[in-house]
Protein backbone atom coordinates (compact mmCIF):
# COMPACT_ATOMS: atom_id res chain seq x y z
CA UNK A 1 0.00 0.00 0.00
CA UNK A 2 1.34 3.43 -0.90
CA UNK A 3 2.55 5.58 2.01
CA UNK A 4 -0.07 8.32 1.77
CA UNK A 5 -2.93 5.85 1.37
CA UNK A 6 -2.21 3.96 4.60
CA UNK A 7 -1.61 7.22 6.46
CA UNK A 8 -4.99 8.53 5.32
CA UNK A 9 -6.63 5.27 6.35
CA UNK A 10 -4.84 5.40 9.68
CA UNK A 11 -6.16 8.95 10.25
CA UNK A 12 -9.69 7.62 9.64
CA UNK A 13 -9.02 4.73 12.05
CA UNK A 14 -7.72 7.14 14.70
CA UNK A 15 -10.85 9.26 14.36
CA UNK A 16 -12.94 6.09 14.86
CA UNK A 17 -10.97 5.22 18.02
CA UNK A 18 -11.46 8.76 19.32
CA UNK A 19 -15.21 8.60 18.65
CA UNK A 20 -15.35 5.31 20.57
CA UNK A 21 -13.77 7.21 23.47
CA UNK A 22 -16.46 9.90 23.18
CA UNK A 23 -14.27 12.46 21.41
CA UNK A 24 -16.29 13.52 18.37
CA UNK A 25 -14.80 16.78 17.15
CA UNK A 26 -11.14 15.86 16.71
CA UNK A 27 -8.88 17.19 13.98
CA UNK A 28 -6.17 14.67 13.11
CA UNK A 29 -3.14 15.68 11.04
CA UNK A 30 -0.39 13.38 9.82
CA UNK A 31 3.15 14.80 9.90
CA UNK A 32 6.07 12.90 8.37
CA UNK A 33 9.35 13.33 10.28
CA UNK A 34 9.92 16.36 12.47
CA UNK A 35 13.63 16.86 11.95
CA UNK A 36 14.80 15.47 15.27
CA UNK A 37 16.43 12.01 15.33
CA UNK A 38 14.20 10.77 18.15
CA UNK A 39 11.10 12.03 16.32
CA UNK A 40 11.66 10.33 12.97
CA UNK A 41 8.70 8.52 11.50
CA UNK A 42 5.07 9.54 11.50
CA UNK A 43 3.44 11.86 14.02
CA UNK A 44 -0.32 12.19 14.34
CA UNK A 45 -1.19 15.59 15.77
CA UNK A 46 -4.65 15.60 17.31
CA UNK A 47 -6.45 18.83 18.15
CA UNK A 48 -9.46 18.54 20.43
CA UNK A 49 -11.59 20.54 22.85
CA UNK A 50 -9.90 21.23 26.21
CA UNK A 51 -12.29 18.88 28.08
CA UNK A 52 -11.51 16.08 25.65
CA UNK A 53 -7.77 16.72 25.90
CA UNK A 54 -7.89 15.92 29.63
CA UNK A 55 -9.40 12.52 28.79
CA UNK A 56 -6.86 11.76 26.06
CA UNK A 57 -3.77 13.05 27.88
CA UNK A 58 -4.50 11.94 31.43
CA UNK A 59 -2.35 12.66 34.44
CA UNK A 60 1.29 13.27 33.41
CA UNK A 61 0.54 12.03 29.87
CA UNK A 62 -0.15 8.43 30.90
CA UNK A 63 -3.38 8.14 28.89
CA UNK A 64 -1.70 9.71 25.86
CA UNK A 65 1.16 7.22 26.09
CA UNK A 66 -1.43 4.39 26.15
CA UNK A 67 -3.34 5.89 23.20
CA UNK A 68 -0.09 6.08 21.24
CA UNK A 69 0.59 2.42 22.00
CA UNK A 70 -2.90 1.40 20.84
CA UNK A 71 -2.45 3.34 17.59
CA UNK A 72 0.98 1.75 17.01
CA UNK A 73 -0.49 -1.75 17.48
CA UNK A 74 -3.42 -0.88 15.21
CA UNK A 75 -1.05 0.40 12.50
CA UNK A 76 0.99 -2.81 12.62
CA UNK A 77 -2.04 -5.09 12.51
CA UNK A 78 -4.03 -3.19 9.87
CA UNK A 79 -1.26 -2.00 7.59
CA UNK A 80 1.90 -3.87 8.55
CA UNK A 81 3.33 -0.45 9.34
CA UNK A 82 6.57 -0.69 11.27
CA UNK A 83 7.86 2.89 11.18
CA UNK A 84 7.89 4.95 14.33
CA UNK A 85 4.53 6.46 15.23
CA UNK A 86 3.99 9.17 17.79
CA UNK A 87 0.74 10.80 18.84
CA UNK A 88 0.39 14.29 20.24
CA UNK A 89 -2.76 15.91 21.61
CA UNK A 90 -3.00 19.71 21.65
CA UNK A 91 0.81 19.97 21.47
CA UNK A 92 1.17 18.27 24.88
CA UNK A 93 4.28 16.21 23.94
CA UNK A 94 5.91 19.08 22.10
CA UNK A 95 5.56 21.37 25.11
CA UNK A 96 6.48 18.59 27.57
CA UNK A 97 9.69 17.84 25.63
CA UNK A 98 10.63 21.51 25.63
CA UNK A 99 10.05 21.72 29.39
CA UNK A 100 12.09 18.55 30.05
CA UNK A 101 14.94 19.87 27.89
CA UNK A 102 14.96 23.17 29.81
CA UNK A 103 14.95 21.26 33.12
CA UNK A 104 17.81 19.07 31.86
CA UNK A 105 19.88 22.11 30.85
CA UNK A 106 19.21 23.73 34.23
CA UNK A 107 20.33 20.56 36.04
CA UNK A 108 23.46 20.41 33.85
CA UNK A 109 24.28 24.04 34.62
CA UNK A 110 23.83 23.39 38.35
CA UNK A 111 25.98 20.22 38.22
CA UNK A 112 28.81 22.02 36.44
CA UNK A 113 28.68 25.14 38.62
CA UNK A 114 28.53 23.24 41.94
CA UNK A 115 30.67 20.27 40.90
CA UNK A 116 28.08 17.94 42.42
CA UNK A 117 25.53 15.46 41.03
CA UNK A 118 22.03 16.86 40.60
CA UNK A 119 19.11 14.44 40.97
CA UNK A 120 16.01 15.40 39.00
CA UNK A 121 12.42 14.63 40.01
CA UNK A 122 11.09 11.08 39.51
CA UNK A 123 10.05 10.51 35.87
CA UNK A 124 8.48 7.95 33.61
CA UNK A 125 10.89 6.09 31.31
CA UNK A 126 9.86 8.08 28.22
CA UNK A 127 10.55 11.33 30.10
CA UNK A 128 13.97 10.10 31.25
CA UNK A 129 14.86 9.23 27.64
CA UNK A 130 14.16 12.82 26.62
CA UNK A 131 16.43 14.15 29.38
CA UNK A 132 19.25 11.72 28.51
CA UNK A 133 18.95 12.65 24.82
CA UNK A 134 18.91 16.37 25.61
CA UNK A 135 22.26 16.13 27.38
CA UNK A 136 24.11 13.67 25.12
CA UNK A 137 25.94 16.46 23.30
CA UNK A 138 26.88 18.30 26.49
CA UNK A 139 30.52 17.30 27.03
CA UNK A 140 30.59 18.76 30.54
CA UNK A 141 28.06 16.36 32.11
CA UNK A 142 26.98 12.74 32.07
CA UNK A 143 23.62 11.28 32.99
CA UNK A 144 22.44 8.14 34.69
CA UNK A 145 19.31 6.88 36.39
CA UNK A 146 18.85 5.98 40.04
CA UNK A 147 15.99 4.54 42.05
CA UNK A 148 13.32 2.00 41.25
CA UNK A 149 9.79 2.04 39.91
CA UNK A 150 7.90 5.28 40.30
CA UNK A 151 10.84 6.81 42.18
CA UNK A 152 13.34 6.33 39.33
CA UNK A 153 14.99 9.62 38.34
CA UNK A 154 17.77 11.00 36.21
CA UNK A 155 20.92 12.15 37.92
CA UNK A 156 23.12 14.69 36.12
CA UNK A 157 26.79 14.60 37.10
CA UNK A 158 29.68 16.82 36.08
CA UNK A 159 32.25 14.89 34.05
CA UNK A 160 35.51 14.39 35.86
CA UNK A 161 38.33 16.36 34.28
CA UNK A 162 41.76 14.78 34.57
CA UNK A 163 44.76 17.03 34.04
Description of the molecule:
With 163 residues, the chain is α+β, with helices and mostly antiparallel strands. The protein folds into two domains: 3-90, K homology (KH) domain (GMP Synthetase, Chain A, domain 3, 2-Layer Sandwich), CATH 3.30.300.20; 96-158, Ribosomal Protein S8, Chain: A, domain 1. It has five helices and six strands. The strands form two sheets. Strands 1-2-3 form a three-stranded mixed sheet. α4 packs across α5 (125-135). It is elongated, with a radius of gyration of 19 Å.
Number of strands: 6
Q: Provide the gyration radius in Å.
A: 19 Å
Biggest sheet: strands, sense, closure? 3 strands, mixed
Strand fraction? 15-25%
Question: Which regions contain 5 or more consecutive residues with pLDDT less than 50?
Answer: none
Count of alpha and pi helical runs: 5
CATH topology of the largest domain: GMP Synthetase, Chain A, domain 3
CATH architecture group name of the largest domain: 2-Layer Sandwich
Distance between the termini: 59 Å
Class of the largest domain, according to the CATH hierarchy?
Answer: Alpha Beta
Topology:
Layout: H1 3-20, E1 27-32, E2 42-47, H2 50-57, H3 62-79, E3 85-89, H4 92-114, E4 118-122, H5 125-135, E5 141-146, E6 153-158
Parallel strand pairs: 2-3
Antiparallel strand pairs: 1-2, 4-6, 5-6
Amino acid sequence: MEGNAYQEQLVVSIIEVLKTLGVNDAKVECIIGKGEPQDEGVTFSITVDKRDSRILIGQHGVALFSLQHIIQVMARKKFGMVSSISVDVNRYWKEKKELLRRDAEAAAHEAVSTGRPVPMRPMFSYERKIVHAALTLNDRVETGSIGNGEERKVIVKPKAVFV
